[in-house]
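# step 3/5: fold
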Amino acid sequence: MRGFGRYLGAALAARFASEGMGMAVVLLAQERTGSAAHGAFVLTAWLAPHVLAAPLAGAAAARTRRPRLFHAGALAGFTGAVGALALLLGRAPTPVVLAVALVGGTCGPMVTGGLSSLVAGLVPAGPGRDRAYGWDASTYNAAAVTAPAAVSVVAALGSAGPAMALLGASGAVAAALAAGLRYEDRGAGSAPEGPRAGIGAGLAALWRVRQLRAITSATTLAFVGVGSLTTTSVLLASALGSPDAGGVLMTAFAVGALAGSLTLGRVTTVAPGPLACGALAGTAVALAAAAFTPSVAWTAAAFAAAGVCDGPLLTATLRIRSDYAPAAVRTQVFTLGAGLKLTAASAGAALVGLAAGAPPRALLLGIAGLQAAAALLHVVLARPGARGGGSGGGAVTGPSGACATAPAGRRTPGEP
């Protein structure tokens, strides 16, 4: 596990900066222009390129002869865009600000899936790698808990400008740590051969390999619900008589997710397919229960339970991508998966905005239903013989039926 501690530091710092951007941009726009809507437009420009840039970033990372420098450069570009927005937002012409946000957003896939793709080159295949993905998943959850809180505190004590500067500093630390990583991955940095190594090769692998198709489809559907959860929590808190408690509910979910990733997410005796199915089903049950709770306290407890169930989902997703993605397109698979989930979350946020007049409990039941549907979708698509392509190698049929995947640490075709 040479260099994995440095990797975790880089991943946590990068994702801290990424998770804090949503709140920091809106606060800074409100402070300088008096319009939170202006911040929403900038944030949209920041998020929009993710899914489009994902295959390009993944292909470039796979082709580069110096992958370590490529990742560090992407993080440096991300950091530079954060710093530029801190200086320009509310001061420079809007088209300039939006252009900077678009450029920074193109680096976004390397902060999420792109970084996670490096784990296979840092940790040998086996239970140790599975545990490493659990730690990697925990950096997402830890950043989701701490970044918005840190931005809020810094902005309350001073202004939103220093809060943006904090995110920029965190990104700079991530770039510096990434530049010092040493890893060996025969699939990274080698010029891929043949048409399958092109920009569309990652998307083709997501469809052709049964396990990748199943987890990507299921998590994308689930994230339509996850993207609408924040707005729904605010509406639900208001219906319970505590309009300001929406943040409490989401904090409970995030803390639960962190706990779940650090505990259940580190279990290596369960294959990742059943782990993903169980995580989706458990989240569905807990959120459905939250729709019937009588008070904010009980609702927060149910949200925390949903977070605990959701925590292992990312770990399982990362393990499946690592086990079944062909080495030449591994980074594409990671970045595309992350981009699709983010796009689905954005769609969910838009949908709940259109349906904001519906009863909050009904909205929450709808979100729970999406998680249950995602679990069922995974079962259907992961079963042997499902349409769309082959198994990609390494698939096994076990007691869990359609959700069974390769045992932890099993070498699959395309793995280094």
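# step 4/5: annotate
The longest helix spans residues 127-157.
# step 5/5: archive (pending)
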